From TrEMBL:
<keyword id="KW-0479">Metal-binding</keyword>
<dbReference type="InterPro" id="IPR039556">
    <property type="entry name" value="ICL/PEPM"/>
</dbReference>
<feature type="binding site">
    <location>
        <begin position="237"/>
        <end position="238"/>
    </location>
    <ligand>
        <name>substrate</name>
    </ligand>
</feature>
<feature type="active site" description="Proton acceptor">
    <location>
        <position position="236"/>
    </location>
</feature>
<feature type="binding site">
    <location>
        <position position="465"/>
    </location>
    <ligand>
        <name>substrate</name>
    </ligand>
</feature>
<dbReference type="InterPro" id="IPR006254">
    <property type="entry name" value="Isocitrate_lyase"/>
</dbReference>
<feature type="binding site">
    <location>
        <position position="198"/>
    </location>
    <ligand>
        <name>Mg(2+)</name>
    </ligand>
</feature>
<feature type="binding site">
    <location>
        <begin position="115"/>
        <end position="117"/>
    </location>
    <ligand>
        <name>substrate</name>
    </ligand>
</feature>
<feature type="binding site">
    <location>
        <position position="274"/>
    </location>
    <ligand>
        <name>substrate</name>
    </ligand>
</feature>
<dbReference type="GO" id="GO:0004451">
    <property type="term" value="F:isocitrate lyase activity"/>
</dbReference>
<dbReference type="InterPro" id="IPR015813">
    <property type="entry name" value="Pyrv/PenolPyrv_kinase-like_dom"/>
</dbReference>
<protein>
    <recommendedName>
        <fullName>Isocitrate lyase</fullName>
    </recommendedName>
</protein>
<dbReference type="GO" id="GO:0019752">
    <property type="term" value="P:carboxylic acid metabolic process"/>
</dbReference>
<dbReference type="GO" id="GO:0046872">
    <property type="term" value="F:metal ion binding"/>
</dbReference>
<dbReference type="Pfam" id="PF00463">
    <property type="entry name" value="ICL"/>
</dbReference>
<feature type="binding site">
    <location>
        <begin position="394"/>
        <end position="398"/>
    </location>
    <ligand>
        <name>substrate</name>
    </ligand>
</feature>
<keyword id="KW-0456">Lyase</keyword>
């Protein structure tokens, strides 16, 4: 069954030591080391506060406890769902978390998603690849480590700015402001948040899955998402040709991930099991069955079969016994076996229940459209067996959200007997429908989709797999159109730099964002007045205030 909470330890998710206690510890240490001349206690305290997480395992344990706490909160109140955006580079993740803190003041219930699709398309040494597990498996833990390197640097940068403000308050003799700034440090919320990391179908057998899972956890991942496709035939969840494996094969990989978490001491680690059965009509294997009704027999019961007689038997036939009859599963030229049409939902439900009963913590049902009732119908059946079942759901860019929701509204209007004569269902993507009652209603359903489905369909975590892939492409297209056209430099200044300044985007000061101020302060720690610093009066970054 599901993980049974042991009680989330406050110690696991509490903040670092206070400014003054860290300072006192450093002073005591340096007092005992008289030859460490020139090392300042306050510099040591600040550097320690800027480096709260010493290893990826520290991150994994901290974020796992956070995620468990969020899961418990959702079980009590489904309005407390969580969200993430897929990030393909550490800088993207960093800017996302900086923006969240800027706009909302805290990072609560906001995560990161690491997409195998984006690693394949953007981070493989082979160049752009389709989402078929052809990229280097080592690129997955490498990206996790990169994400957290950038998030930890965001911590350092924000704290460093506060330390500089403390020094300025001190210089001005403003003790009240100095005290307030020290309290700000003590209440600092890290940019480090949970990452749900895509391990695809495990990149091989259960041992291969275990080895990769260890590397991902060591890099900081607290949640691993694994799917029930065949590793060497893996496809993107929104493409055709998906091939699933029997439950026992998949369960071995779930156990491999759990063993990896437990070996590394991440006892709260989360496993997200994804089923592609709704869109997968093929299997590579016939499951092993020892008696009628066992798990293997249930898997095989969905196979598309025909009865075999002496007259129609063929060379090389594979035969199974179904209710006392000899049946031949339909085998394709690819040597894959075919499921009966229309069994996808039943297979999904069985996959989900079986996963939760064998160590999974969250489910992921890959659907072909964003339809709340379709998802809820399956979740209702799963919850009859596992009452606290909950999902991570892919709010995928592979869906045409505008068209899907306009179809849903059109169909609902028609069913209710409303006049739909001014709408062409086959052409609802047209801009002319944007401000119509249908278009407005569809947009409102899209706006509330996450909240509505969290409440109705058991979706604990909403993610968008590839958003920053699309935003990078869109913003680059807009800049290229302006800059290389008649607008020239104004195309950059008006639409990028001016907006960064006016909207308070952190990387408008790109030197600061890259760590130049932190480096200057370190130089002063190390060399004192002899330090050659970059942030002097002639630094052009001063133009940005």
């Amino acid at each position: 069954m599901n993980y049974q909470p042991r009680g989330i330890s406050d110690r696991a998710i509490q903040g670092p030591a206070s400014y003054l206690s860290e300072l006192g510890t450093a002073e005591a240490l340096l007092k005992a080391q008289p030859t460490w001349n020139g090392v300042g206690a306050e510099a040591v305290a600040r550097m320690r506060l800027q480096n709260r997480f010493k290893t990826g395992l520290d991150i994994a344990r901290y974020t796992a406890a956070l995620m468990r706490s969020d899961m418990a909160a959702y079980d009590a109140d489904p309005t407390k769902y969580t969200q993430s955006l897929g990030c393909w580079h550490g800088f993207i993740a960093q800017q996302k978390l900086i923006s969240i803190k800027k706009h909302f003041g805290k990072t609560d219930r906001r995560y990161l998603y690491l997409s195998g699709w984006m690693i394949a398309a953007l981070r493989s040494e082979f160049g752009p690849l389709p989402d078929q597990s052809m990229h280097e498996k080592t690129s997955v833990p490498a990206l996790i480590e990169e994400l957290y390197t950038f998030l930890r640097q965001a911590d350092s940068r924000e704290l460093n700015d506060t330390f500089r403000a403390i020094d300025a308050a001190r210089k001005a003799g403003d003790q009240a402001k100095e005290k307030a700034l020290i309290e700000k440090v003590d209440n600092f919320q890290t940019h480090v948040v949970p990452v749900i990391a895509d391990i695809d179908a495990g990149f091989g057998n259960a041992e291969a899955t275990y080895l990769l899972a260890k590397k991902m956890i060591e890099a900081g991942a607290c949640a691993l998402q694994i799917e029930n496709q065949v590793s060497d035939e893996k496809q993107c969840g929104h493409q055709d040709g998906k091939v699933t494996v029997p439950h026992e094969v998949f369960l071995a990989k779930i156990r491999a991930c759990r063993h990896a978490f437990l070996e590394l001491g991440v006892e709260d680690g989360i496993i997200v099991t994804r089923t592609d059965s709704l869109g997968a009509g093929l299997t590579q294997q016939i499951a092993v069955s020892h008696k009628p009704g066992d798990l293997g027999d249930q898997y095989n019961s969905f196979l598309d079969c025909e009865e075999v007689t002496a007259a129609n038997a063929r060379n090389g036939d594979v035969i199974i016994n179904r209710n006392g009859k000899m049946m031949r599963p339909k085998r394709l030229a690819s040597n894959l076996y075919q499921f009966r049409a229309g069994t996808g939902e039943d297979r999904c439900v069985l996959d989900c229940i079986t996963s939760l009963q064998n160590g999974a913590d969250l489910l992921w049902i890959e659907t072909e459209k964003p339809h709340i009732e379709q998802i809820a119908k399956m979740v209702d059946r799963i919850r009859e067996v596992v009452p606290n079942a909950k999902l991570a759901y892919n709010n995928s860019p592979s869906f045409n959200w505008t068209l899907n929701f306009r179809w849903q509204v059109y169909d609902a209007m028609k069913e209710a007997g409303k006049d739909v004569s001014k709408y062409n269902r086959a052409d609802l993507m047209k801009p002319e429908y944007d401000d119509t009652p249908l278009g407005i209603e569809a947009d409102e359903r899209i706006r509330t989709f996450q909240a509505d489905s969290a409440k109705r369909a058991g979706i604990f975590h909403h993610l968008i797999t590839l958003p920053t892939y699309h935003t990078a492409a869109l913003s680059t297209d807009n800049l290229a159109k302006e800059y290389f056209g008649e607008q020239g430099m104004l195309g950059y200044v008006k639409n990028v730099q001016r907006q960064e300044i006016r909207q308070g985007i952190a990387c408008a000061k790109h030197q600061n964002m890259a760590g130049s101020d932190i480096g200057d302060d370190h130089k002063e720690y190390f060399a004192g007045e002899a330090a050659l610093k970059a942030g002097g009066a002639h630094n052009t970054m001063n133009q940005f205030g």
